[in-house]
From TrEMBL:
InterPro entries: NAD(P)-bd_dom_sf, SDR, SDR_fam
Database matches in PANTHER family: 3-OXOACYL-(ACYL-CARRIER-PROTEIN) REDUCTASE, NADPH-DEPENDENT REDUCTASE BACG
Pfam family, one: adh_short_C2
Organism: Microlunatus flavus
Signal peptide start and end residues: none
Coiled-coil parts of chain: none
Name under which the protein is recorded: 3-oxoacyl-[acyl-carrier protein] reductase
Length: 268
């Protein structure tokens, strides 16, 4: 099921499609792209929250539209792509982003859980990108940016579903980047570490329950383990998305950029 709503002012500019746009990293990225001169199509599961997000972003000369779709639904990509192209006729920037799957260790995953996680984190993003890439390639200009996880580079013990699904997406993105580079389309990923979002708050709460500690203690210890000594702010990651969407990043493709306060020990 899907619904659409619209908050429109005047004018037409570059168009960005942003998933998971009602909170956290998706909402911050939508704000950064709006401030950078883009019209927007926002999407996530909750139509009511999407309407509220659109109202916060509307401004003179800016168009903001929304479509409700669930990334875990096999039909979501078709709904979003159709809504974007019907509304604007083009998409210049595609931000692939969705909420995280359930917490699970590697020996706790199930076949059904993997199928759901892969739909959410790999199949729907790939499907959506492939539906919007032809018009980017035809115009010889476009940006595909995936917000993933530091677990792509260093798997996280309790996030086996996320590790697997996002790693699959990262491999596809790297492969795609070489396919479309000659058509003026760049393809990159952003790897958030511990960013102060509702998702990270829920992970801290789960860790507190699992270890019998206060959530404040869990968060404090987690922040202390980060070289920067704190959790990141959503707008700090959104600034990386904004850069990758810009003309300044036209020669950056096929890479992943960590925004993690120095947490990752591995080389890129």
């Amino acid at each position: 099921m899907s619904t659409t709503s619209e908050t429109t002012t005047t004018g037409g500019r570059r168009v960005a499609v942003v998933g998971g746009a009602t909170s956290g990293l998706g909402a911050a990225s939508a704000r950064a792209l709006a401030d950078g001169g883009h019209d927007l199509l926002l999407w996530s599961r909750d139509a009511e929250r999407l309407d509220a997000a659109a109202q916060e972003l509307v401004a003179p000369g800016r168009t903001v539209r929304t479509v409700a779709a669930d990334a875990a639904d096999p039909g979501a990509a078709a709904v979003v792509a159709e809504a974007a192209l019907e509304a604007y006729g083009r998409v210049d920037v595609l931000v692939l982003n969705a909420g995280g799957p359930p917490i699970a260790r590697a020996d706790e995953v199930t076949a059904e859980g993997l199928r759901t996680a892969f739909q959410l984190l790999a199949v729907t993003p790939v499907d959506l990108a492939n539906r919007l890439l032809p018009q980017m390639r035809e115009r010889r200009s476009g940006r595909v940016i995936a917000i993933m996880s530091s677990g792509v580079r260093e798997p996280i013990d309790t996030l086996a579903y996320s590790n697997a699904g996002r790693a699959a997406l990262a491999a596809w993105l790297k492969t795609l980047s070489r396919t479309v580079a000659g058509d003026g389309v760049t393809v990159n990923g952003v790897l958030p570490g511990r960013i102060a979002t509702p998702r990270v708050a829920s992970l801290d709460e789960a860790a507190a329950r699992r270890t019998g500690r206060d959530v404040e203690e869990v968060s404090r210890d987690s922040a202390a383990s980060i070289p920067a000594g704190r959790y990141g702010r959503p707008e700090e990651l959104a600034a990386v998305v904004g850069f990758l969407a810009s003309d300044a990043a036209s020669y950056v493709t096929g890479t992943t950029i960590a925004c993690d306060g120095g947490s990752l020990r591995s080389l890129p």
